[in-house]
Amino acid sequence: MTAGRSLGALSGAAALLVLVGGSGADAADEAAGLIKYRQLLMQEAEAGMAAMDLYMKGQIDFKPAFAERAAAIAATARDFASLFPPGSDKGAKTNAKPDVWSNTMRFRGAVVRLTQESAKLAAVAKAGDEAGLKAQFQNVVDRCDGCHENFRLRM
């Protein structure tokens, strides 16, 4: 998914939430929709990281797609903070820890760092900087792992 498609998807989801809300659905229905939407974005990000990891391990030589995946990860990371508004911890099963809502400053800080590192990865990939690619990819992996460790329930 490209950055434009990610933003378009977020806009579409927001429109859907407004439409659902306008039709008399309750807040739990809206929260359930948002939970499902953010889970899908997280799954998409996870798949993108796994695909890029194949390139990093030398298992594929598909450099142009790497840059596209990195840009999509950066776009999705920018959306993360807005995908966890108050009340979106109820309405459907979520793997997010309560700390996302009870310690919002810490969570938002983690999201900012992920956003910065993923934007750097997208820039390094676009520039074709092979020397910096491995280190920057690992920085993003570390940021993802840090969020999952602190803000995601183990399944």
What does this 3D model show about the protein?
With 155 residues, the protein is mainly alpha-helical. It has one domain (3-151): Four Helix Bundle (Hemerythrin (Met), subunit A) (Up-down Bundle), CATH 1.20.120. The chain has helices at 3-22, 27-56, 63-79, 99-102, 104-127, 130-151. The two termini are 27 Å apart. Residues 1-24 have low confidence and may be disordered.
Q: Can you summarize the main beta sheet?
A: none
When the domains are counted, the total is: 1
Distance separating the two termini: 27 Å
- Which CATH architecture is right? Up-down Bundle
Tally of DSSP helical segments: 6
Identify the overall geometry: elongated
Class based on secondary structure composition and strand pairing: mainly alpha
What is the fold named in CATH at topology level?
Four Helix Bundle (Hemerythrin (Met), subunit A)
In the CATH scheme, the class would be: Mainly Alpha
Q: Going by CATH, what is the homologous superfamily?
A: Cytochrome c/b562
Mean pLDDT reading = 84
Low-confidence stretches: 1-24
Strand content: under 5%
SSE order, one letter for each helix or strand = HHHHHH
Q: How many whole angstroms does the radius of gyration measure?
A: 16 Å
The percentage helix is over 70%
Annotation, overall tally of beta strands: 0
Show the helix and strand layout.
Blueprint: H1 3-22, H2 27-56, H3 63-79, H4 99-102, H5 104-127, H6 130-151
Helix pairs in contact: 1-2, 1-3, 2-3, 3-5, 5-6
